[in-house]
Amino acid sequence: MSDYAKKTIKVVLSGLDNAGKSSMLVGFKRMYGYEDEVHSLKPTLRIDYYRRNFLNLRLNFFDMGGQSKFRAMYLKRKMYFESIDLLIYLVDIQDEMRFTESVKYLSDVLGVLEDIGYPKEIPIYVCFSKADYEFIKDNPDEYIARRAMVKKLLRTTFPEYEFQFYQTSIYNLYTIIHMISNGLRSYLDGYNEIQDGIVEYRDKTEIIQAILFDHTGLVISETFNPKSNDYDLENKIDRIISGHLEFFGQLEDEDLDITSIRGVDGEFMNICYQFHLYNDLDMSEEQIKDAIKKKKSGNPYYANYYFSIISSLDKSILAENQINEINSKLRDFLKAILIDYQKPRSFVEE
Ligand SMILES: Nc1nc2c(ncn2[C@@H]2O[C@H](COP(=O)(O)OP(=O)(O)OP(=O)(O)O)[C@@H](O)[C@H]2O)c(=O)[nH]1
Ligand SMILES: [Mg+2]
What we know:
The chain is α/β, with parallel strands linked by helices. The protein has helices spanning 21-30, 35-39, 68-76, 99-115, 133-138, 140-157, 173-185, 191-205, 231-254, 285-293, 316-338, and strands spanning 7-15, 47-54, 57-64, 86-92, 124-129, 163-167, 209-214, 219-222, 260-265, 268-278, 302-312.
C-alpha cells in the first residue's frame, strides 16, 4: 500500500428473478430494520449499481435483474460478464419448481465466462439463498439432496472452475456478510498480518469466534470457526453475530460511542468492542481532537472498527482475564495496519 491507490473490484450478483439478490444488497446496506424494505422490493429492471469502499477496495456491485428478457440480453452481450472479480450466483433453495431453470442459467453464464476467458483461479460463489433456519429444519433431507445435486452437476460440467458454496438467509445477516467478505479477502492488503493477530488472540483465550469488522460491517478478519457439522450450533452463533451487526449499524447511524458491551446468550458469552482509530500521522493535537468531534461529518481521518467475540460460558473467565491485556495489544497492532487504509482518498463513502 505505498500509494494508497484503491483497487476497483467488480462484484456481480446473478441468478433468476426473485432469487433474493436485491434483498441481499438491502440487508448489506442497511444492517438492521430492513425487513419491510425487503418485503416490498420490486423486480430489478436491468442492473442496479451500488458502490462502497472497504479498506483498500472500491467495491462496485452489479445487481443483475434476473427476469428472462434481461438474462437473454446479458448472455447475448457478453461485456456484462467482463472483468468480474467476484461472481455470486444465487439459487433460491426454496423454489423447487425453478431449480432446473436456475442451474441451466448458471451453466449458460459459465459458458459465457469460458468464452471470454474468465480467470479460472477466481472461485465462483454459488449461494443457496433463502436458506432460512426454519426452512432447513423442516426439510433437512430435501435441502441436503438439492445442495449435493447442484454441487455435483457443477463440478462435473465445469471441472476446471473452483466453486465455493454458501447458504444465506436475509433473516440471518451474518450469513450474507460472511460470504461477501470471504469473496473479497484475497483482494485485501495487509490481511495476513491481521489474520495472524486474530488467530493468536483466539489461541490464547480459547474463544469460539472472534471477528473484526470495518465500520460498514464487512469482515476484515475472523477466526476460522471450526465446522462442527452441528447446524443448530452454527446457526446460533451466526445469529448472535447478526445481532452484533445490527447493533454496530445502529451505533454508526446514531454516532454513538461504546468501549465494550457484553451479553450472555444461552451457553455463550459474547462481547462487542468498538475501536476508534484516527490517522494521527499528519495531524496536530488540535486536529485530532477536531477529528474525533467531527467524525460523522465526513472526516476522512477517522473510522470505527468493531470486534466481536464469542466464547462458551465456562471459558469466559479465561477470556475475560485475558481480554484487557490482549485488547490493548490488539488495538495497537490493528492501528498500525489499519491506519494506512484511512487516507482521505480511501475513506469517501459513496
Ligand atoms: N424467506 C426468504 N425470503 C427472501 C429472502 N431473501 C429474499 N426473500 C424474498 O424474495 C423476494 C424477491 O427478492 P429480490 O431480492 O427482489 O429478488 P431478486 O433476485 O433481486 O429478483 P430480480 O430483481 O427480479 O432479479 C422478496 O419478496 C423477498 O422478501 C430470504 O433469505 N428468505
Ligand atoms: Mg432485484
